[in-house]
Every structure is written in C-alpha cells, then in structure tokens.
Amino acid sequence: MTTMISVDDVSLSFPLARPGLTTLLSRKKQEKLKWALKRITLDVDQGEVLGVIGRNGSGKSSLVRVMSGIYSPAKGTVLSRGQLFLLANVRIGFTGNLTGRENAYLYGSILGHSTKKMDELMPEIIEFSELGDYIDQPLRTYSSGMSARLGFSVATAVQPDILLIDEVLSVGDLDFRERSKQRILNMVENAGTVVMVSHSLDLLKKICNRIVFIDDGEVVAIGDPDEVIQTYRDSI
C-alpha cells in the first residue's frame, strides 16, 4: 500500500501575543506559545478516507493545514505524494474578484491541467455545483453555500491525488451533502485519498476507513470508525 501522507512526530505552535518592544530589546522575556498540535504521528494510504474528529479548538483544522503545507510544523516532518487540494474555509485559495469560472480554470492550472482539459471539465463542474449563470459572476457575490459547492465541484472534478476537506460541506444543503458523499466515494474508487474534518459523525461513519480523534492537539484514538466515534462520545 502506497503512503500518500506521512505525519511524523509533528508539533505546531502559535504565539499567544506579539512581543513588545521591551521584549525585543532586552530579550529577557520569552514569547508564550500555544501548542495546537503535539507530537502527532500518522500515515494516510492511497485510496483511504480518513476522518478527523474532536471538539472545537482541538487541532483538527491545524492538522489538515499542516498536511497541506499552509502551516509549517515547529517540530517533526510532513511528507505528501502527488497533487494535493485543500478545501477549507469556503473561499480559501479562491480570488473574490474573479468569476467562478475563472477560479475553476486557475485551480485547474495549479494542479497541472491544460485549458483544453478544463474546457472539458467545466460542464460537469457547473452541473454539479448547480451555479448556472452565476458561474460567470465574481466570487465575492457568492453566498457561503455557493462558494462551497464551487470549491467541492472543482476539487473533485480535477481529481487531485489527495483531497483535504475541512468542514466545508456543512454549509451545503442536504441534497448537496448526499451528492458530495457519493462523489467522494467515486473519487476513492479511482484511488484518490481523502482526509475529512467534520462534526457530522454519521457522514464520517459511512464513508471513512479510519477516524482519528484529536483532543488538545494530541491523538486520543485512531482506527475503526465505530470504535473511535464511541470513544469521542464517551469523552463529551
């Protein structure tokens, strides 16, 4: 089995406050740090759907952002294999002044697709996102749900090797979430790899091979979805 993402002993920290001028000059005070992740080690294999659960502020989003390369770990290493697409904050990576269509072409080019290839994919993207004529309107005019539908439609149409999803599907309606679930399963059947952060435990139970439960930046449990979800529920 090919390992697509390897997280090895990773810790991630953020400053709690900026040092003042006195601190910079005297160097007598140390900047206080918040450790968002603490010595995380896990692998994600090709064709796997890994769910990530935990309370708000537990480190779930930090983990997928470290995997994507947006955040650099303070300690440890993260290695990934192949093309990677992060679908997080509904507008992350998109440009508000560009239209939905232009954003789709831009992301396609980042992932190495030609204009001709994106021409072929656009009808599918427009149909799945249900944006219709809005596809040619600036992204800044979109609602959060419209942005989420566009982002997910582009991400799954261009078929990256690794898709990281951080809660973004929660802003869609029930019909879109159901169609998205099937879309993820289709992607995995084509040997895609998915890491998905969500508070929807029922959704994760249906589509994930494994789930990791994170609390206070540490791995509490990882493995069988039913068992890990029960561990999480028992902790609440």
Give, in spatial order, the strands making up the sheet with the most strands.
5-6-7-3-8-9
What series of H and E elements makes up the topology? EHEEHEEHHHEHEHEEH
The N- to C-terminal Cα distance equals: 35 Å
Total strands: 9
Provide the structure class: alpha/beta
Q: Could you name the CATH homologous superfamily of the largest domain?
A: P-loop containing nucleotide triphosphate hydrolases
Strand-residue proportion: 25-35%
Helix content: 25-40%
Number of helical segments with 4 or more residues: 8
- Which radius of gyration do the C-alpha atoms yield? 19 Å
How is the CATH topology of the largest domain named?
Rossmann fold
What's the oligomerization state? Answer: single chain
List the helices and strands and how they pair.
Blueprint: E1 3-15, H1 21-26, E2 33-45, E3 49-53, H2 60-68, E4 75-80, E5 84-87, H3 100-110, H4 115-129, H5 144-157, E6 162-166, H6 174-189, E7 193-197, H7 201-207, E8 210-215, E9 218-223, H8 225-235
Parallel strand pairs: 3-7, 3-8, 5-6, 6-7
Antiparallel strand pairs: 1-2, 1-4, 8-9
Helix pairs in contact: 3-4, 3-5, 4-5
Overview of this structure, please?
By secondary structure, the protein is an alpha/beta fold. 38% of the residues lie in helices and 27% in strands. The protein folds into two domains: 3-82 and 161-235, Rossmann fold (3-Layer(aba) Sandwich); 95-158, no CATH class. It contains eight helices and nine strands. Helix 3 (100-110) runs parallel beside helix 5 and helix 4 (115-129) crosses helix 5. Strands 5-6-7-3-8-9 form a six-stranded mixed β-sheet, sandwiched between helices. Strands 2-1-4 form a three-stranded antiparallel β-sheet. Strand 6, helix 6 and strand 7 form a beta-alpha-beta unit. The radius of gyration is 19 Å and the shape is globular. The protein has helices at residues 21-26, 60-68, 100-110, 115-129, 144-157, 174-189, 201-207, 225-235, and strands spanning 3-15, 33-45, 49-53, 75-80, 84-87, 162-166, 193-197, 210-215, 218-223.
